[in-house]
User: Fold this.
Amino acid sequence: MKAHANKIICTHILCFLLLTFSALWANDAKSHFVSSKPLVLHTIPVHGRFGRYNTAEIFCDAENRITVLCKFGFWDNDNRKESTLLFVSDKGKWDKSKVPCWGGMINDGVFQAYRMEDIVQPDDNTRRMGISVYNIEHDLSLSSKPTNTFEIFEIGKRDKVFKQEESRMITDVVPLSRNPGKFFVVGYYVESRLLNPINFILYLASAGHHGYVHRPFGAIVEQDEITGYYNTPEKLKVNDHSSIIDYVASGSKIHFVGEKNKEYSYDPHIIQYLSFDLNKKHWKKPVELFRGHKGSEKLRDDIGALSLACDNNIVYCSWSRNVADLTSEKDWTWTNRPDESGIYFCSGTNNQWGEPAIISKSGDHPIVLLDKKSTVYIFWIERYKGLSCKHKTNTAWSDTILLVKDPAIRIRGMFFPGGSPSQPFSIAVDNDNNFHIIYIRESSGTFGEEEFKPEELVYVKVKPETLK
Assistant:
């Protein structure tokens, strides 16, 4: 009888321990936030390798309305690639719609969407590529007429400015505050160097992988007319690939951060800062902020996810870096260099920059931004953990805070039309200094193969007092 009673007691204790462990495990598998609960705005069932979110960006207008734009991958086999999901939250209530747009921006406190369109000229019936800017109506549709439409270039003809141009792509439209109808267009073009006989021979020998230069450019738009194209003042050699990753407009200047490297080579990646003076209408000479190692078959130095912020004349920049050595060719094992890998930060003014510093020994895809009190924050993804952040005090950086505990958060870079990876999460600050975050997470379900897991678009709001 006593043995039977002991057996029952042991069974109950074992069940209690199992239930406790299961609860803890289940709790750890979910997302935990320091402030509001997560809100899944949308779930996309993945049908193939490219059927995933393309971009997800969040905006906050002057009246604290939150807008999220979400576009799908380019290579979907259905009509999802032709539309962008639009989510709008007004005082906590979310509405959703599909709109045919390409991107969004806050223009003088108002959210606007834009897209590329063919413009037919009535006089000569020629087709030209242009960009149209639209307001969003109360039913979340695009306004019946665009607020602005400006021509980019004529289809089928080379622009006189770029005599050896092969192709051109617009990546961003930058609104210029307090200047209605004035924009700065950012893009890149591919310049041919095949007039050189040696380059042409190497082009044929490399199956088309030689003989070009990838160069950014800017253009000023005033009253729906482009008043001038402006090349970046870089001395680029054949196969050099220069790109603009992030930008911020401040007063009469637009600040840019970009990356330069040589395609199909182990040449080091270079991070450089550029600025454009709107009054003088010219670029300043690029400033090299950082230069990585020259790679090899046994050394990998991955630099990316550049982010930029500005407070008056002080510019802040952050990026991630992963330096690894091949330690085993048998199973292709790479070992990180902890003293060189992590999240980097540097700041400067008037083209005078300080030395870059590592503020975290781990992390990917940092975003640097300023709140309404001009406090500098850096947010980044900790692999298999979630979203972390720290802020800058007068003398040092604060301790790291695990802001969002979510092991399923995606670390891959989504792609925007320019071809460079964008951030897998986005942050906006409202007038009350709250942070609004949108990010992509891997859903728990699967559709067929394990690698084709569905993804979820998750929103969370964070109050500023939780970050101190």
